[in-house]
């Protein structure tokens, strides 16, 4: 496939092979963008903004509605690309493709609700003769940098609102999974998006990233990815708006009065969805000691039923990790935890990029698999007996995206909701629950600002005040 620069789909001699992590077969190639290509993209995006800022809301919304319709008509095609280039099973990929349709549709709807307000000028002495208002205007060139784990819907979360707001965009998708993003851009153009409105640059973030991030023509960076890349981007960005969706090590508390069946089912799925490569995937399960043994037995039994392997088979529950290197990293973290005293209750094995769903207990606080985001199919169980202590433990790490609690007590739920330090608390769901239109984001190292269509639109527009001085009033 090709990248999109100045309205043209272009190739380069230097290419990246996109492979299926299950069998390492080559699916396609994409060009390696050079620094010259970055310059072309930046200059074209500035021209693109001159067009997009003049597009009516109606026209922007129509492009997005049509895009949603196109994807909806080719759901299987999109799902197959997601499943083949990434880690998701075909069933997980179908869900992502359907979510993407909704994400784009809601972006279209929200474009019609970019509102301003009149300003009560006479609320301060001296303002009595002024009248006016503010409205929101598009921010300019948005640089969207996306990760591999939701290669379509997380791209839609950036392109949808950027276009809805009237911005132009430069998209840099993850190098391992660029194909879904390219297909989304194709659909946008087919739906009538002016070609200069979007530049799609494929290539290595570590090589071309700084030239994009540091450039002053970019007015906003919308980044989703790991903390290390996030810190680097923040250092390089200079004076421009930055939005970041970063990692986490999501805690879930299972209180003694929880519905155990529900908690087990939700948390197994939340731990192993997309082979655990999920920013809101369950990593730490803090289970009340009164129900710990029963929960553990049921959790391990349910995990043991997981069928892993070929992503394209309808009955596969979990596919491979994104690369063998990543699976080896997780294997190493498990070995380190074992050496420090952890017990593996099930799993722990690896074949190529396929990592078994793994459940650990007695994980010491100093183990990497406790302190860092694992981003793989492993979960740690910890017994708890005091809610304050459990909340303190949940809050003890430098992340805070989503947290969750299973309980039938409204008091316990409320206490957790208010005291868990994060961007959202799920009650009687695992952390792996996200509605695409809710404000989504984290505190601490989990990110800056919020995504979720209406909220992204706020971030991707700026208020401009208009004030009339009416001396004769
Ligand atoms: P990553 O390695 O940080 O890469 C993310 C994106 O950043 C890729 O497009 C990558 O390009 C690019 N990049 C890397 N270094 C860069 C640089 N110096 N300048 C500019 N761009 C750069 O993350 P990943 O492994 O793809 O994704 C996993 C991470 O994303 C996890 O930490 C996960 O928690 C996080 N995530 C967060 C959310 C959320 O909403 N909070 C959602 C999904 C994932 P290359 O691919 O070319 O390296």
Describe this structure in words.
- This protein starts with a strand and ends with a strand.
- The model has no long low-confidence stretch (mean pLDDT 98).
- The chain is 39% helix and 21% strand.
- The protein folds into two domains: 3-247 and 445-466, Aldehyde Dehydrogenase, Chain A, domain 1 (3-Layer(aba) Sandwich); 251-435, Aldehyde Dehydrogenase, Chain A, domain 2, CATH 3.40.309.10.
- 51% of the residues are buried.
- It has helices at residues 35-52, 57-73, 75-85, 90-111, 153-165, 179-190, 205-213, 227-236, 260-272, 292-304, 324-339, 368-371, 387-394, 410-419, 453-459, and strands at 3-5, 8-10, 15-19, 26-31, 117-118, 130-138, 141-145, 168-172, 198-200, 218-224, 241-245, 251-254, 284-288, 343-346, 350-351, 354-355, 358-361, 378-384, 402-406, 424-427, 447-448, 461-469.
- α2 crosses α6, α3 (75-85) crosses α4 and α5 crosses α15.
- The strands form six sheets. Strands 14-17-18-13-12-19-20 form a seven-stranded mixed β-sheet, with helices on both faces. Strands 9-8-7-10-11-21 form a six-stranded mixed β-sheet, sandwiched between helices.
- With 473 residues, the chain is an alpha/beta fold.
- β3 (15-19) and β4 (26-31) form a beta hairpin.
- The protein is globular and about 75 Å long.
- NADP nicotinamide-adenine-dinucleotide phosphate (NAP) is lined by residues 145-149, 154, 172-175, 204-206, 209, 213, 224-226, 229, 232-233, 245-247, 279, 373, 375, 401, 447.
Topology overview:
Elements: E1 3-5, E2 8-10, E3 15-19, E4 26-31, H1 35-52, H2 57-73, H3 75-85, H4 90-111, E5 117-118, E6 130-138, E7 141-145, H5 153-165, E8 168-172, H6 179-190, E9 198-200, H7 205-213, E10 218-224, H8 227-236, E11 241-245, E12 251-254, H9 260-272, E13 284-288, H10 292-304, H11 324-339, E14 343-346, E15 350-351, E16 354-355, E17 358-361, H12 368-371, E18 378-384, H13 387-394, E19 402-406, H14 410-419, E20 424-427, E21 447-448, H15 453-459, E22 461-469
Parallel strand pairs: 7-8, 7-10, 8-9, 10-11, 12-13, 12-19, 13-18, 17-18, 19-20
Antiparallel strand pairs: 1-2, 3-4, 5-6, 6-22, 11-21, 14-17, 15-16
The protein binds NADP nicotinamide-adenine-dinucleotide phosphate (NAP).
């Amino acid at each position: 496939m090709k990248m999109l620069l100045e309205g043209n789909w272009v190739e380069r001699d230097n290419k990246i092979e996109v492979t299926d992590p299950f069998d390492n077969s080559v699916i396609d190639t994409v060009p390696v963008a050079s620094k010259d290509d970055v310059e072309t993209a930046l200059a074209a995006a500035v021209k693109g903004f001159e067009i997009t800022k003049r597009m009516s809301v109606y026209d922007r919304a129509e492009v997005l509605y049509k895009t949603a319709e196109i994807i909806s008509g080719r759901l299987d095609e999109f799902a197959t690309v997601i499943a083949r280039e990434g880690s998701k099973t075909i069933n997980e990929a179908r869900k992502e493709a359907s979510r993407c349709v909704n994400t784009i549709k809601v972006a279209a709807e929200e474009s019609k609700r970019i509102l301003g307000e009149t300003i009560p000028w006479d609320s301060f002495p001296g303002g009595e003769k002024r009248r006016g208002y503010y409205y929101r205007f598009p921010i300019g060139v948005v640089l969207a940098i996306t990760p591999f784990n939701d290669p379509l819907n997380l791209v839609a979360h950036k392109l949808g609102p950027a276009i809805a707001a009237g911005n132009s965009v430069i998209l840099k998708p993850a190098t391992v999974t660029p194909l879904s993003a390219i297909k989304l851009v194709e659909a946008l153009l087919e739906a009538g998006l002016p070609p200069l409105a979007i530049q799609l640059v494929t290539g290595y973030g570590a090589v071309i990233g700084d030239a994009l991030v540091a450039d002053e023509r970019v007015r906003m960076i919308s980044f989703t990815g790991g903390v290390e890349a996030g810190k680097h981007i923040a250092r390089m960005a200079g004076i421009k708006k930055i939005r970041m969706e970063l990692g986490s090590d999501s805690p879930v508390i299972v209180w003694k009065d929880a519905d155990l069946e529900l908690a087990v089912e939700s948390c197994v799925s939340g731990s192993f969805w997309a082979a655990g490569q999920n920013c809101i995937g369950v990593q730490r399960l803090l289970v009340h000691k009164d129900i710990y043994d029963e929960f553990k037995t049921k959790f391990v039994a349910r995990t043991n039923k997981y069928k892993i392997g070929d992503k394209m088979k309808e009955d596969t529950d979990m596919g491979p990790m994104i690369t063998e290197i990543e699976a080896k990293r997780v294997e190493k973290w498990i070995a380190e935890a074992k050496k420090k005293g952890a017990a593996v209750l099930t799993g722990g094995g690896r074949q190529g990029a396929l990592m078994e769903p793994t459940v650990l207990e007695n994980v010491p606080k100093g183990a990497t698999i406790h302190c860092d985001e694992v981003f793989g199919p492993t979960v740690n169980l910890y017994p708890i007996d005091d809610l304050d202590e459990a909340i303190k433990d949940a809050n003890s790490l430098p992340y805070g995206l989503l947290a969750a609690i299973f309980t039938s007590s409204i008091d316990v739920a409320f206490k957790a909701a208010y005291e868990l330090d994060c961007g959202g608390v799920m009650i009687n769901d695992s952390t792996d629950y996200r509605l695409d239109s809710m404000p989504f984001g984290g505190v601490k190292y989990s990110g800056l600002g919020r995504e979720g269509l209406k909220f992204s639109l706020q971030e991707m527009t700026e208020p401009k005040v208009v004030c009339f001085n009416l001396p004769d009033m």
